[in-house]
Amino acid sequence: MTAPGALVDRLLASGALDSGGGISPFTALAVAELCASGGFDEQVALLRTAYRERRDTLAASLNESLPDGCHVRLPGGGFFIWVTLPKEMDSEALLSEAEAGGIAYVLGARFHSDWGGQNSLRLAFSLYPPKQLVEAGRRLGRVISHSAPRRA
């Protein structure tokens, strides 16, 4: 039987633990085992279900709470919902009020190379449980409704 210290020495000498700036060997082996065991597909299915529920919960809350003229776009993938405000509104001007109400978002203009998107914003839904997402939609709806231009 080989002594544990000798096994560690052989492992270290093999280079298996050297990342060289690449992926972590330990993480790669753990993921390989998860894939080989069939657990990966099961985990992906669980995550897809959880994220779909979160996405749909936030979208429903936004659709109920946002004033007329706002548009909610569901993602085909990813973890963000896009909201387009009426053209005359500026998401940057609303940000401090939204943050004071406990809501944060990323300005849509940061994702436009042509400097457009001033009336859009991006919301993340992957981190928060559905109950918080319902409240977030309501709070954002109040902020936007308070600032939205009145239509005749």
How would you portray this structure in words?
By secondary structure, the protein is of the alpha+beta class. The chain has a domain at 51-147: Aspartate Aminotransferase, domain 1, CATH 3.90.1150.10. 52% of the residues lie in helices and 10% in strands. The chain has helices spanning 4-14, 25-37, 39-65, 91-100, 130-147; strands spanning 71-73, 80-84, 106-107, 120-124. A four-stranded antiparallel sheet has the order 1-2-4-3, with helices on one face. The radius of gyration is 23 Å and the shape is elongated. The model has no long low-confidence stretch (mean pLDDT 88).
Features:
152 residues; alpha+beta; Aspartate Aminotransferase, domain 1; 4-stranded antiparallel sheet; 5 helices; 52% helix
Quick rundown:
With 152 residues, this protein is of the alpha+beta class. Helix content is 52%, strand content 10%.
SSE inventory with pairings:
Layout (H helix, E strand, L loop, with lengths): L3 H11 L10 H13 L1 H27 L5 E3 L6 E5 L6 H10 L5 E2 L12 E5 L5 H18 L5
Antiparallel strand pairs: 1-2, 2-4, 3-4
Helix pairs in contact: 3-5
Number of DSSP strand runs: 4
**Cα end-to-end separation:** 86 Å
**Class inferred from helices and paired strands:** alpha+beta
The CATH class name of the domain at 51-147 reads Alpha Beta
Major sheet summary line: 4 strands, antiparallel
* CATH-defined fold name of the domain at 51-147: Aspartate Aminotransferase, domain 1
Could you name the ranges where pLDDT drops below 50 across 5 or more consecutive residues?
none
What is the approximate shape?
A: elongated
Helix content: 40-55%
Number of helices: 5
Q: Beta-strand percentage?
A: 5-15%
Overall pLDDT: 88
* Name given to the CATH architecture of the domain at 51-147: Alpha-Beta Complex
Supply Rg. 23 Å
- Give the CATH H-level superfamily of the domain at 51-147: Aspartate Aminotransferase, domain 1
Widest sheet: strand ordering: 1-2-4-3
